[in-house]
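Worked example 2:
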Amino acid sequence: RWVLSLQCKGSRNVMSALRRAVEVDFKDKDKHESQGLYLLTTGIPDQETHTISAYVAEVCRGFDLHLHVCLFSVMEDIDSSGVIPARYANPRETASAFKEIAQAATGRFHWFGEAGIFESDDITSIVSEMEKAKNYSQKCAFLVESLKHRS
C-alpha cells in the first residue's frame, strides 16, 4: 500500500537505490523464503553496468532475492527540462545494460514503451512453452498417424 503514496522522483543513481532497498528496507529478509525487488526506470544508470551487476549478483546470492527490471522507453531522450543526463545511452544500449543487471540478479527483464512491449522475459518464456507444446502435439499426431498405417 505504501507504494501508492509515493511520488515519481529521483535520480539515476541505481547503486544508491539498490543499497538502500537491500541493506535498509529489507530488514526482515531472512524471515522470507523468496523476495522480489522491482526497479522501474526510464534511463541508463549513472554507474557502469558491470559494477551494478557484480553488486546485485553478490547480494542476491546471500538470500533468495530477485531483481526484476521494468524499463520504459520514452520517445525523446531529453527530459522535460531539456537537460541531457550525465550518462547517456540510446534505448538499445540502455535495454542491454538493464537486461544484464536483471540476469545477474536472477530476475526478469521487461522493456516497453508507448508503442507496446519491445521485450519481456515473461512473454519469451510463454512463447517458448507454446512452441514446446506445439512440437509435442505434432510428434503425437505423427505417432498416431504412423500407428494408423500399421494397422
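The mean pLDDT is 82. The chain has four helices and four strands.
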